[in-house]
Design brief:
This protein is an alpha/beta fold. Helix content is 33%, strand content 25%. It has eight helices and twelve strands. It has a ten-stranded mixed beta sheet. A two-stranded antiparallel sheet has the order 3-4. α6 links the parallel β9 and β10. α1 runs parallel beside α3. The radius of gyration is 20 Å and the shape is elongated.
């Protein structure tokens, strides 16, 4: 269901600090991590301008930003990431690879054509809108900058026709991570949706909710780090920000080769 996780990361220290948490998510859910380190072309072009300067965060010293020194810093960060992934791979079941490309993250993500079972991961700050995650044609995994390992899979089941892939992926994630599964449904539609879940053996996981909003949904799991699973076209995502969201899988319309043995 999720065979590969692709993460485009850059030079920033914040990305490096997230590496272990992204790798832990991949290992826990049996997915291979493909990390793609970006040489930001805008940054490299800026370094070629004679007026560009860099300021040391430790000393406050100002000096010219030389392209070769910047490229050296990029190569060192790439090697640092590789060494850290090797360490993580030795201490967990993580399978990984590391590539290095030049470009801009938003363009690279948008141009990437996902393979079957592949999801792109994005790391957002609490105030960021989920709509800022570039659409690449596949499902997307969004992690909060404050991400904690999930303790619960919380899926949204609104539309029996559209949301079956959501339920199947949520069930798979719960099984892989040995996590409890809750399936939130609008209270006024519970009678219609319950037989569908019963046919999958999931009626006991159904959680009818009144006040059908994203805030109400997140409130039912405030004491646990949850993984929210919902369709990327859900109306609940309109204007949604990462505040209160630990992790979310935005499920794309299903393709036959994405469903695999989990199809009922």
């Amino acid at each position: 269901m999720i065979r590969h996780i692709v993460w485009y990361l850059d030079l920033s220290q914040a990305e490096l600090e997230m590496l272990e948490r992204v790798a832990e998510f991949a290992a826990r859910h049996g997915a291979r991590l493909r990390a793609v380190f970006i040489e930001d072309e805008s940054l490299l072009r800026s370094a070629e301008l004679p007026c560009t300067r860099e300021v040391s965060l430790t000393t406050g010293r100002v000096r010219s930003l030389e392209p070769e020194r910047l490229r050296l810093q990029l190569r060192r960060r790439h090697e640092h990431i590789r060494q850290r992934l090797e360490q993580l791979g030795r201490h967990s079941a993580l399978e990984w690879s590391l590539d290095m490309v030049s470009g801009r993250r938003d363009r690279l993500q948008a141009a990437s054509l996902p393979e079957p079972g592949e999801v792109q991961v994005a790391v957002l700050d609490p105030g960021d809108e989920l709509a800022e995650v570039p659409a690449s044609g596949g499902s997307r995994l969004v992690l909060s900058r404050r991400f904690r390992p999930a303790e619960l899979v919380l899926a949204v089941f609104e539309d029996a026709g559209r949301d079956l892939p959501v339920v199947l992926r949520a069930r798979w994630l719960a099984r892989q991570g040995r996590l409890p599964l809750w399936l939130a449904v609008p209270a006024e539609q519970a009678g219609r949706l319950e037989p569908v879940l019963a046919s999958l053996g999931l009626a006991d996981a159904m959680l009818p909710l009144g006040g059908w909003t994203l805030a109400a949904l997140l409130a039912v799991a405030t004491d646990r780090a949850s993984l929210l699973v919902l369709h990327q076209d859900s109306a609940l995502l309109a204007g949604a920000r990462m505040r209160g969201i630990n992790a979310a899988l935005l499920v794309a319309p299903e393709r036959e080769d994405d469903i695999g043995p989990e199809r009922p």
